[in-house]
Amino acid sequence: MEDKQIMQNIKKIIIKFAIVFFIVMLVLLFFSKTVETMLKPMVTTCKPETKAIRDTYEFKALVNYESTKKAYPEFNYFIEEVLIEENQNIEQGIPIAKLRDIDVKKGRNELEQAISNIETNISNIERSLYQSEDQEDIAHKEKQLEIERKNLESKQKELELHLDIIDENNNIYSPVDAERIKRELEQAVFALETNIYNIEKSLYQIETQEDRAQKEKQLKIERQNLEIKQEELELYLSIIDEGNNLLSRVDGMAVNIMFADQNYTNITTPMFEYIDETIDAAIIWDMSADNRKKYNMESELRLDYIYYEDNGEGSTIEKNGIAELSIDNIKYNAENGKYTYTVLLNTQKHEAIIASPNINATISTDPIMLENAIPISTIHDDPEEDGKIIYVVREDIHTKELIVRKVPIIIKEKYGMYASVDYSFSYNESIVLTTSKDLNNNMKVRLR
Asked: What are phi and psi of 286, to 5 degrees?
């Protein structure tokens, strides 16, 4: 009984050992396959194709301006902070600078005081002109003065005559009330003298025609000054918002910021330069006669540029743009034997290009068609024979593994980065483009 139990235990141990051995073998087989796969070179492949090849000439493009406009401050300000940047599109009414509060109030008060002073001057001149008499009044008073003087002379003679008929003892030579007559005559003379005095005084105070013309001229000037100051105040209030931000009065693109934080502006110094739809912008470059012939530079220019777009969250995102622009002008320069090319830009249509901080310009030749074209980087020197080879990847029909074969080729034509080769590719063949290790003929590989 015990022997039978022992045999059963041995049998169980053998079975367990067999199971463990089988599992270990499976694991080893798996890892061996994995290791084998890991040791295979990793390759990328490509297929031959018919390509329209263009040779390209590249350069950094710079935007030139025929001229720029300048935005001057209407008043002198203290700039706390500049709120615009170069190549920023600006519109009338947008804030361009933060101003100091105290300067804004002071400027407004000075304009309002100047207007008040001018209005006072105008009122005084108008009152003076309203109170002065015209030339007709002056002539009337002068005639009245002449009459009064004659009346005075007449009354003085009457008084002298009256005194002649009264002796020193007041004896009257005729039966007349001498005292009454004397008194009346003296009163009449006095009244005439007073009247003459008043008329002369009035005439003395009356302005001449020349004086009046001078005051009217002064009044006209003051009214013009008032209109100017009122317009200045209206302008002052219209270009500064409630937050004491200075607002733009122009539309366009700021291409050169000329004022700075914590600085005063001056009405004779521009704050910034800008361009608008009236300004011609262009990309201009020179090219040799040989390159002109090679690249057939008669038609268009390709631009790859960076521009920025509002993401709707208060910031911008960088994007890439492409444009193909026609060449507008070609001019030969006899001094250096080169041709100067000009591509005109529209400040509205090509706003993103003009504002771009990075523009790569590309000029291409007319396309050349290459049949059976492969990248030149896939072609290698044959170390065994004097020729060229490529490595071709094909799937083994039995193992389904990828096998590399070394294939000799003949280069028919090269252009740029591609070559047309004399080799008949099968539908299931690919060309090794890159590899992680050196390749040998019939080597197993895996795709990257």
From this structure: -110, 150
Q: What does the pLDDT profile of the chain (448 residues) look like in tens digits?
A: 556 666 666 776 777 767 776 776 666 565 555 545 567 888 899 999 888 877 777 777 777 777 788 888 888 888 889 998 887 888 888 998 998 888 788 887 887 888 888 888 777 777 766 555 555 666 666 676 677 667 666 666 665 665 555 555 555 444 445 566 666 656 766 766 776 666 666 655 555 666 767 777 887 888 888 888 888 778 778 888 888 888 998 888 888 888 888 888 888 888 888 888 777 788 888 888 887 777 766 666 777 877 777 777 777 788 888 888 888 888 888 888 888 888 888 777 787 777 776 777 777 766 778 888 899 898 988 877 778 889 999 888 887 888 889 889 989 888 778 889 888 888 888 999 898 888 888 888 888 7
**Residues of the chain by 3-state class (helix, strand, coil), percent to 5:** 40, 35, 30
- CA-to-CA dists, residue 45 to 244, 428, 429, angstroms: 65, 12, 9
**Contact between 375 and 430 (Cβ < 8 Å):** no
Domain parsing of the chain, residue ranges: 42-52+369-447, 63-67+277-367, 71-99+244-276, 119-225
Name the DSSP letter for residue 378.
G
Contact 59, 285 (CB under 8 A): yes
CATH code of the domain made up of 71-99+244-276: 2.40.50.100
Q: What is the pTM of this model?
A: 0.46
Token pair recorded at residue 269? 């110094």
Backbone angles phi, psi at 397, to 5 degrees: -70, -20
Cα 226 to chain centroid distance, Å, stands at 35
Inter-residue contact 267 to 72 (CB < 8 Å): yes
Q: What does the CA dihedral 18, 20, 23, 29 come to, rounded to 10 degrees?
A: -80
Domain 42-52+369-447 in CATH 3.50.40.10? The answer is no
Q: Which residue has the tokens 């300000």?
A: 77
Write the DSSP string, 264-279: E--TTS-SEEEE-TTS
Label the pairing between strands 300-310 and 281-288.
unpaired
Going by C-alpha positions, the residue among 358, 276, 359 that lies closest to residue 92 is: 276
The tally of CA atoms less than 13 A away on the side-chain side of residue 8 is 5
Cα-trace Rg, the chain: 54
Phi, psi at 437, each rounded to 5°: -140, 165
SS3 per-residue string spanning 402-448: EEEEEEEEEEEEEECCEEEEECCCCCCCEEEEEECCCCCCCCEEEEC
